[in-house]
Amino acid sequence: MQAVIDLLKEYQVDIMFTLSAICGLLALFVVITKTLVPSRKYILLSLELCAMFLLIFDILSYYYRGNTGTTGFYMVRISNFLVFALTIGIIFIFTLYLINIYIHEGKYEKPPFRLKLSCLISVIGWIMLIISQFTDFYYRFDKFNRYERTSGFAVCYLIPLIILILDMSVIIENYKRIGKLMRISILLFSIVPLISSIIQIYTYGVSLINITLVGLVVLIYIFSLLDTNKMIERANKQELEIVRQEQKNMHKLFEQTATALANAIDAKDKYTHGHSRRVAMYSVKIAKSAGKKEKECEEIYFAALLHDVGKIGIKDSIINKEGRLTDEEYGAIKTHPVIGMQILSSISQSPYLSIGAHYHHERYDGHGYPAGLKGEDIPDIARIIAVADAYDAMTSKRSYRDPIPQQLVREEFVKGLGTQFDPNYGRIMLHLIDLDSEYMMKESEDASEGDAIGTLLCGPYRTTRSDGILLNNGIVHIHLTSQMTDERNEENIPSFVLFDSLDGRIHDSERKRKDLLYHEYATIHADGIAEQAGVRNIRTKTNETAGAAAEKKTMLRGEKVDFDIEAMRYKDHALIRISNRFRFHEVIIALPDSTRFCYLSITGKNCTIDDVEVSKTGETIGSGYIPRIAEEITYIDALQGDIPNVQIDGWRSESSEGVELTDGMRISFHTMSLPTARLVWHCPFAVIYTSSDGLVNGKDYRELTVVRLDGEGWEEDDHVDNHMLVNKLDSFTNWNDFKEQNKAGQDCELLFHVKKGQIGISTEFCGLSIHSVTNVTDEIPKLFVALTGDQCAITNICIKR
Questions:
Q1: Which element (helix H / strand E) includes 495?
Q2: Domain named HD-GYP: which ranges (predicted)?
Q3: Using an 8 Å Cβ cutoff, are 515 and 640 in contact?
């Protein structure tokens, strides 16, 4: 400790010079700082100036100490007096600083009493100091003009100590009323000088208190500045948050206004409810798949949402006319793009809105309206909306027709590529259709998975029924309540029809059943009775709880009964569980094949079905979950080549083993489309991919391209560019023959060419010559190929290198 004191004695003048210079600079900074509150600015300025002059006069007192000349005589006395006075002054100003903080930040209406008392004691301290000059109570000067302590010197230390203790008590009591940085600095100012004062009593010749006070004054300024910066930052954040919230509110208002306007447009046409919203959603899906940025996707959404705004200017009698329009009426309808453009062009901040409305009926081949634009002369937004608009128009009910099944819609898009539709965006829609295995992209009248089904007022059996709910290996949970109507008997209960059709709906007329490939599997009644229609086998098991008699009595009294249903399907078997508080039924159905879809529709007889909730938890089932009650149907019990045969019952539902791809490699195989196949793309596909473990959908899986043997291709990665060249050979007659040949079974060979950054695939299949070239822009360590497809069996797969 003594060594430290000696070191301070040796260098204290240098330390005081440095600190005084710093205080002077800080005083200048305080003057030019504009971020401080004026009252606090004056206090900090006073602190820094007092600290600077304290050290200057302390240095002078040391410099003239022992100087017996006239100048020395006065300078020693003046300097020592000002040192003591400025020491109390700094503590007094610090107290004022505390008062300022607690009023402005601590939310005090008036200063705490102890701080007022500190100010009073400071004044007393100055008075005592003045008295000491005439009584030598604190100190005196010997004949050599040197400073000496006297008997009352402890009092001059006691007064600052009392003030600091009072200040500290207020700080501790109100510690959390102010910011963290501020409370740290003021607490240090109240504690450290106390320690220095105690040490100073036992130390002579070292201005420890003065150095400590000045150091803490510097610290207070720094912490005050940091706190102010933090307050400004917080205020800026709040301001930015307010601006952000205002922008969010404005965006929400714009969205709500646009949605309300779109709903008003759709309300004019009883056959297009929700059309604008669906077109907007489909447009965004296309835009995202095309790699558009988020802002572009948002603009496309709103442009699509308001694309039909011009219909406001069309007579309701024309819009809602039953059946087809006359040429004159169709001419009136064709004016709605121009009307829409005129309405939306006044929104100068969002010019893209009028573009979507104006050009969404232009055709890629130039035969559209109103301007007859062609190709890429049609604005990008409009080409996207045209695809989405056409898709929703075909998959929605119209006055003159029912919705067109999605698979037939797909064929229309294939025909329209490059004529009606932009080829790029049309192919994206084809891909979205392929990915939409549960047919979610459609207008829904009653229900689709995840939507609430409205109340079903069932009269005669099956006259009222919901849309089909698609069953797959994910467990579907259905809850409903049933209540008998006035005609009460034991048959007035809900029923569940299992079926398949192209549009996911039950059909009764023979014509629609034929057109929509309707196939009914079975009807399961809520009492556990199953009626077989087109299945291989059905097995029913019932567990009684309170029993059938109690269930019947409850229903006949007209009380509501809650039913919980679990429904699922794995390949060629389906499982339905029906339970209420009386009984539990489990029905296993062996379907005729694994390829058709299986929908469940809710219906009934003379009952009201209400409170229907349909949900999927994401829980899936695997092989063995449903007990098998019929032999598995397989078409791959045939010759096996180098890797196992594979049967693909649905869109890419299975894949062969992956094979590492090398230049010049050939893969030969036999393929046959399944008996249920009816479309040209029910054929094999080749998938080029990479993964760490070589497995399809394995670790770090990345799909580069898919080549279908009907001549279509698809690139799955942003870093690849795929080109397909398809020629019809002399052996190709038509697509119907293509499908028949595929069903009969064909041998095929794929030839692969692999160069740096390029993968080529060549083959001939059912009269088509197919060449695919995929350019890859980044480095890939290992490439793999696997065979997959849709509704086909692939056997005798041989690898030739």
A1: strand 494-500
A2: 250-445
A3: no
Distances (CA, A) of 64 to 76, 139, 612, 701: 6, 16, 99, 85
Contact 566, 534 (CB under 8 A): no
Q: Which residues pair with 481 in a beta bridge?
A: 562, 610
Structure confidence by residue, pLDDT tens digits, 326-344: 888 888 888 999 998 988 8
What class has domain 2-227? Answer: mainly alpha
Let me know: does 787 contact 707? Beta carbons within 8 Å.
no
| Residue 627 region by backbone torsions, left for phi larger than 0, else alpha for psi between -120 and 50, else beta | beta
| Residues whose CB is less than 8 angstroms from the CB of residue 297 and which lie 6 or more positions away in sequence, other chains included | 284, 287, 288
pLDDT digits (tens, 9 = 90+) for 132-187: 888 888 888 888 888 888 888 888 878 888 888 888 888 888 777 776 767 677 77
We find that the CATH architecture of domain 646-800 is Sandwich (2.60)
Q: DSSP of 347-416, one letter per residue? A: -TT-THHHHHHHHTT--TTS--SSS---GGGS-HHHHHHHHHHHHHHHHS-BTTBPPPPHHHHHHHHHHH
Class at the top of the CATH hierarchy for domain 269-435:
mainly alpha
Q: What is the dihedral of CA 93, 96, 101, 103, to 10 degrees?
A: -170
Cα angle: 42, vertex 44, 49; to 5 degrees: 95
Q: Are the folds of 2-227 and 269-435 the same?
A: no
Expressed in angstroms, the distance from the first to the final Cα of the chain is 86
Domain 456-620 CATH class label: mainly beta
- CA-nearest of 496, 493, 540 to 520 is 496
pTM, 2 dp: 0.58
Angle in degrees, 0-180, between the axes of helices 352-359 and 380-395, rounded to the nearest 10: 50
pLDDT digits (tens, 9 = 90+) for 10-56: 666 777 778 788 878 878 877 877 777 788 788 888 888 888 888 88
Angle at 561 between CA 560 and CA 566, to 5 degrees: 145
Contact at 8 Å (CB) between 396 and 403?
A: yes
